[in-house]
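ok so for the tutorial part 2 we go from a plain amino acid sequence to predicted structure tokens. step 1 is just haveing the sequence, like this:
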Amino acid sequence: MIILSLTIDFFRKQKFYTHLLENINNLDKAYLVLETIEKPNFYEGKLITHALYEINKSMAETVKILETQTDDFKEYIEMWIHEVKIPIASLILMTHNHKEKFNKKMLEQMHRIDTYVEQVLYYVRSENAEHDYLIKEIELKNIINNVALKNKDELLENNIEFQVKNVNFLVNTDAKWLEFILNQIINNSIKYKKENASSYIKIEGREEKDKIYLSILDNGIGILESDIKRVFEKTYTGTNGRIKTKSTGMGLYIAKNLCMKLGHTIEIESKEQEFTKVIIKFSKNEFYKVAK
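step 2 — the prediction. this is what the tokens look like for a chain of 292 residues:
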């Protein structure tokens, strides 16, 4: 009888431990294992489940503290960026109004600072989208006009022809986010233009079935075939970013992230020393018409 009792007890414990280990190995988030097992009715099993409960509780409390600290830091960064953009805008205005005192290089550097600061802002926003997210129906041409105006100085300085065709479309998006995305693309076209050549950027829209396509084409130095699949990766600068100019490798990564959150898709086609084309696809699904 004792042997039978011990045998039954052994197999009951073995079943519990086997189930526990299997669930730990199969779960993507192993700390959720307590939700998948039955409460044991033997002493050692109760000790293990109690220990796991206390560990999970401690982890949850620590994660909550870290999340609060992260949210506070992101909030501070956004506030700081908004504050620092005021003197940057003032300096850019001063260089415009007093061109005899400031050379073009100073204005160029101020624009670079403004671009990098804006990258940080939208990187934070892309990681915390719910705080700054409003999709509504907007006129695509208005966004493109704003982008052209923002980049006017750099386009003129680099003798780049800016062509816009067939962009009288209504799209469902967040206006500020889309403007940032287009600015990143235009900045790249300017940055990677060919030297001593007639340069252009062509923006064109078209409608097809349930989508609106916006293409941004330039005749710059293009992208190596070996780099094209990785241009949206975080901090990936590629060959051009290392040779021609210093690059953070963040612009297209943030643009891709924002597009995903907005429900758009973004793709790149390129041929080295010939062209680069960026295509943004907007859905015409009625689901996106949430605000007007």
